[in-house]
Specification:
Blueprint lengths: L14 E5 L2 E7 L7 H11 L8 E6 L6 E7 L12 E5 L2 E9 L9 H11 E3 L5 E5 L3 E13 L12
Antiparallel strand pairs: 1-6, 2-4, 2-5, 3-4, 3-8, 6-9, 7-9, 8-9
């Protein structure tokens, strides 16, 4: 049986999860130019043993360009500081999570649209960043939410008449 491309598969079910804060090393992305990829390149080259830790993207809307950081979870044996990286914390709290299986590297351009749909479906907490957790075989998207209830379905607008 031929494997279907992920873009042909409906989005996975959303699950509510409580996350603990995660101390991280991070590097800011230039969201007015090159975007996240160069930030991840710096992060991965600066971190000791990058494949042995969780790798995140954090995204926060604000005035002007959004704030985006490429992040690597701190390990107990990490040094206090790593050149070129700052320290930060991925906030904990209530999130709604969707997991996408397969090679997420071929679908990076789809990530913003997935978050936009989640914002329409749930009560987004805009004070905390949205999270992308990159795994070797999956991508997990976490939208911070204020409660465990979905938004009420919005009825379609009636067609305009002349």
């Amino acid at each position: 049986m031929a494997r279907r491309d992920r873009s042909e598969v409906p989005p996975p079910v959303a699950v509510f999860v409580e996350r603990r804060p995660v101390p991280v090393f991070r590097y800011p992305a230039d969201m007015t130019g090159a975007g996240p990829k160069p930030a991840f390149d710096v992060l991965m080259s600066a971190l000791p043993r990058p494949k042995d830790r969780e790798i995140y993207g954090t995204f926060l809307l604000r005035e002007g360009p959004p704030e985006y950081f490429a992040c690597g979870a701190r390990r107990p044996d990490d040094p206090a500081e790593i050149e070129d990286l700052s320290s930060g914390v991925v906030p904990g709290g209530l999130y709604v999570r969707r997991v996408f299986l397969g090679d997420w590297r071929n679908h990076l351009e789809d990530i913003p649209g997935h978050f936009q749909r989640m914002v329409q479906e749930f009560h987004h907490d805009a004070s905390r960043p949205s999270l992308e957790l990159y795994g070797s075989r999956d991508l997990q998207l976490f939208l911070p939410v204020t409660d465990r209830s979905p938004r009420a379905a919005v009825p379609p607008r009636p067609a305009a008449t002349r």
